[in-house]
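Figure 6 in text form: structure in, sequence out.
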């Protein structure tokens, strides 16, 4: 970053630029980030943009930092961060949930719905990872789309081991 804002107004301007860039990166990807569109979305001048960021790469670094902050903010209040006994209890809950999924998948293997080579334990881990990862991404982006994509991928994995 070229200049760290020292005033409340400066911090607000920089934050507005970073937030708009985050939205544009989410919509179009990093390659689709256009500085003129960032300026338009934030009603800032070219000189303001370059006052806070030396170039597009510098702004992208700020976007990455902002997204990291958002993800960490979501996780800070979780039980796993409070104490070791809470973390262990949460781990037990996830293990029980995963076990229930594995048991259901194993029944599908036993009934012939899934191939006998299907690993129910591995499938259950993939389903849990998809569910939790998709939920986290949906929560941070405020869109259900990441959860839909993650669950579709998990179900596609299950379909891939379905009996013909």
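Output sequence:
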């Amino acid at each position: 970053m070229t200049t760290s804002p020292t005033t409340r107004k400066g911090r607000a301007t920089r934050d507005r630029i970073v937030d708009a860039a985050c939205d544009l990166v989410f919509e179009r990807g990093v390659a689709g980030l256009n500085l003129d569109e960032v300026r338009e979305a934030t009603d800032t001048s070219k000189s303001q943009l370059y006052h806070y960021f030396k170039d597009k790469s510098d702004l992208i670094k700020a976007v990455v930092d902002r997204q990291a902050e958002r993800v960490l903010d979501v996780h800070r209040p979780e039980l796993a961060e409070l104490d070791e006994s809470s973390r262990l209890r949460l781990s037990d809950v996830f293990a029980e949930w995963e076990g229930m999924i594995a048991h259901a998948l194993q029944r599908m293997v036993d009934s012939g719905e899934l191939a006998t080579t299907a690993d129910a334990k591995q499938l259950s881990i993939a389903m849990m990872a998809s569910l939790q990862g998709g939920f986290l991404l949906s929560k941070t982006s405020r869109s259900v789309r990441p959860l839909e994509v993650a669950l579709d991928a998990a179900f596609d994995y299950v379909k891939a081991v379905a009996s013909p």
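Caption detail: The radius of gyration is 22 Å.
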